[in-house]
Amino acid sequence: MTVRDHARAIVEAQWFQTSVITLILVNAVLLGVETSPSLMAAHGELLHRIDLCVLGVFVLELALRIYAHRGAFFRDPWSCFDLAIVGIALLPASGPFAVLRTLRVLRVLRLLSVIPTLRHVVAGLLKALPGMASIALLVALLLYVSAVMSTKLFRVTSPEHFGDVWTSLFTLFQIMTGDSWGEIAKTVMDEQPMAWIFFVGYILASTFIALNLFIAVAVEALEHESGEHRDHRGELGADSREVLRELRELRAEVAELRAAGLAAERRG
């Protein structure tokens, strides 16, 4: 077994993965503690040293994985993601890159690459993007049509909310999220009582239909990703059972040959 094989066995071991997850969680806690001025004033130097040690361990881990997997490391999107996250943390904390120091918190996102279930969730959401793009276009059309209508209907009644198309777009987006839509509607309905028809219809179309379509597409993609994962595990299980069956047959044949050889020796 070569040194590279030993390195590959280490990085693929369960204890190694668990240690990396634990270190990421510890790092997340430290990054949160650094937002406290009082704690930074009392223990800033210690926290900075611990942060450097954690970063050093992350660099060593990536170096070990690159050595173990060589070119395969760079063909894996999740490995490239880890490399980019740690690379950002290595940028200098002064000069033009000082603002990027806040991006150190992105190291917490490495949990996405080391926890398989999170990887499947992200993969499912990425597969849902084409469907979500179609729904986003539908929502954009709904917003624009409703903005034009509301501007023409309510410009005089509520110019602060519907004075022009851009203001109406922002107001309708606010209503779609459920933020203070009752106050906006009441302001308009004080002058135009029948305006409730527009607001109720818009909320039904945007919130209860369009936004729920996003959830439906995401859930479908996650179910599809989970199904593919189960099928893949089933295929691996079938292959493993086939290998075990062949190994048992091979052992049986070896035992028969050994018994035949012993019988021949006794007769001789």
Helix/sheet category: mainly alpha
Query: What's the average pLDDT?
Result: 81
Number of domains: 2
Helix content: over 70%
Report on this structure.
The chain has 268 residues and is mainly alpha-helical. The protein has twelve helices and no strands. Helix 1 (3-11) packs across helix 3, helix 7 packs across helix 12 (196-267) and helix 8 packs across helix 10 (165-176). The model has no long low-confidence stretch (mean pLDDT 81). GO terms for molecular function: voltage-gated sodium channel activity. Residues 240-267 form a coiled coil. The chain crosses the membrane at residues 15-34, 46-68, 80-100, 121-145, 194-219.
What topology emerges from the helices and strands here?
Layout: H1 3-11, H2 14-33, H3 37-69, H4 71-75, H5 77-89, H6 111-114, H7 116-127, H8 129-154, H9 159-162, H10 165-176, H11 181-189, H12 196-267
Helix pairs in contact: 1-3, 2-3, 3-5, 7-12, 8-10, 8-12
